[in-house]
Design brief:
This protein has 487 residues and is of the alpha/beta class. The chain contains 19 helices and 16 strands. Helix 16 links the parallel strand 8 and strand 9. The radius of gyration is 23 Å and the shape is globular.
């Protein structure tokens, strides 16, 4: 156990953020560099080393949290990063981006603020990179088998790294011009600087993984031809079909999906543009969708100099504390969350629905009409007499995703079966109905969290390794049917 009295003697402290007026003027990460190390040993010491660590159940990767908390408390960073990497290929991603279901399941969280598991995690891995403890793990021998991984998001990268380390020759196909999937172009720079992706890619290249960017399977290369080239295929193409808003005026200029808007801002940071083709500068911006992607749009609009930012959510505002009846410990509760983007300004409006858009004579969106909603007989219904309009010169739709892309032909060319939710169906080994073709991440699970994507990638890698060699020593942290802790 780290510090037997740690949770009694020390309160919860989290990473400090830079002042709002400073950070909205740049695209660097919002946290004060180096602010965690002075406090992280005491924070790790708050871990109770529970007899049954429910944080393991909250995390689909099965992270060995009490173990690396103990090492972090003792400042044994080498041992800490070894235990961290034992279950997680990319802790610098999850330590920055994951909503931390492990903390919701922390036993200390029953009656005190939970251990800052996410902050401890990112401190360990950042220290490991700083000291050079993160090194390529080159396989001792090659199997002679080849694997194609479609998609370079967290699921694809995790599967590729695991299979490469198992001795297979792996090529990752990415339809964008750079590796990283939504990590690269969907996550703003202020949430995770892309240098973290770049150095992992270099590690993977040193281990032997190959990357093919600008190649979309189904369009640029037929799925059937890919299948002939490789002994196995892992599909990790994500669930990129965005949910739309079919209301009058949707065709007006200035209304965009979040994933049309966010990547352009990231491309500016990559040096592809001087200014983004879609910008919030000087505009009244409305973000439809109250989740993390919506918050990313809010923070991006602030940095682009929006005149105002309003975020709409159709559901009622959640509570600020866990409801012990509806969302008991250790489930992941839906709570009112103030992200760094929300700290920077803007208005959040709950329990409203967009009825239509209004434009000017040139077809540009100018107004968004909305109405309050209420539950009637268990269904959301427009509330009479609450209609109003708000200025909207740029609208981003951040309402989630409905499934994997069907337009590029990948699903049909492989002849893949889909489940009732429109995801690619798979068996207990993550194998599709086509022998040798596996699926990992959102393409098979549906829209989910980065930590689930990495767990899926690791598990699908084991299935593919077993298919290629007859057995596998790779870990499989989850089954395809596993879901987050819920009531």
């Amino acid at each position: 156990m780290a510090d037997p009295k740690g949770f009694l003697n020390h309160g919860r402290e989290v990473a400090r953020t830079r002042p709002v007026e400073e950070r909205v003027k740049d695209w660097n990460e919002v946290y004060v560099p180096g602010s965690l190390l002075p406090i992280i040993s005491k924070q790790a010491g708050r871990c109770m080393d529970c007899g049954i660590p429910f944080c393991h159940n909250g995390c689909p990767l099965g992270n060995l949290i009490p173990e690396w908390n103990d090492y972090a408390y003792r400042e044994d960073w080498q041992a800490a990063q070894e235990r961290l990497h034992a279950t997680n290929n990319f802790p610098e991603f999850t330590g920055r981006l994951c909503p931390a279901p492990c903390e919701s399941a922390c036993v200390l969280g029953i009656n005190q603020p939970a251990v800052t598991i996410k902050n401890v995690e990112v401190s360990i891995i950042d220290k490991a990179w700083e000291t050079g403890d993160v090194a390529p793990q080159i396989p001792e021998r090659l199997s002679g088998k080849t694997v194609a991984v479609i998609g370079s998001g967290p699921a694809g990268l995790a599967a590729a790294q695991q299979l490469t380390r198992a001795g297979h020759t792996v090529a990752v196909y990415e339809r964008a011009d750079r590796v990283g999937g939504l990590l690269r172009y969907g996550i703003p720079e202020f949430k995770m600087e892309k240098r973290h992706i770049n150095r992992r890619i270099e590690q993977m290249r040193a281990e032997g993984t190959r990357f093919r960017t600008g190649v979309e399977i189904g369009r640029d290369l037929k799925a059937t031809d890919l299948k002939k080239r490789y002994d196995a295929v892992v599909i990790a193409a994500g669930a990129t079909t965005a949910r739309d808003l079919p209301v009058p005026g949707r065709e007006l200029k200035g209304i965009h999906q979040a994933m049309e808007y966010l990547p352009l801002a990231n491309k500016v940071q990559e040096g592809d543009y001087v200014a983004p083709p879609i910008s919030a500068e000087g505009k009244h911006v409305v973000v439809i969708g109250g989740g993390d992607t919506g918050a990313d749009c809010v923070g991006t609009a602030h940095r682009q100099g929006a005149a105002s930012v309003t975020q709409l959510e159709i559901m009622p505002r959640p509570g600020e504390e866990r409801n012990p009846i509806a969302q008991p410990w250790p489930t992941f509760p839906m709570l009112y969350k103030v992200t760094s983007a929300h700290e920077e300004g803007g208005e959040r409006v709950y329990a409203v629905s967009t009825t239509h858009f209004e434009g000017d004579a040139d077809g540009n969106v100018q107004w968004l009409h909305l109405s309050e909603v209420e539950f009637v007989d268990g269904r959301l219904t427009l509330k009479p007499g609450t209609e109003r309009k708000i200025p909207a010169q740029l609208v981003t739709l951040a309402m989630g995703f409905t499934g994997t892309d069907r337009e590029n032909g990948l699903v049909d060319q492989f002849g893949l079966e889909l489940d009732a939710r429109g995801n690619i169906a798979r068996d207990a080994d993550f194998q599709t109905n086509v022998p040798g073709v596996f699926v990992a991440g959102d393409a098979g699970r549906g829209q989910s969290l980065i930590v689930w994507a990495i767990a899926e990638g690791r598990s699908a890698a084991r299935g593919a390794d077993s298919f290629l060699t007859g057995a596998s020593e790779l870990p499989a942290p989850i089954r395809p049917t596993d879901r987050a802790l819920a009531v």
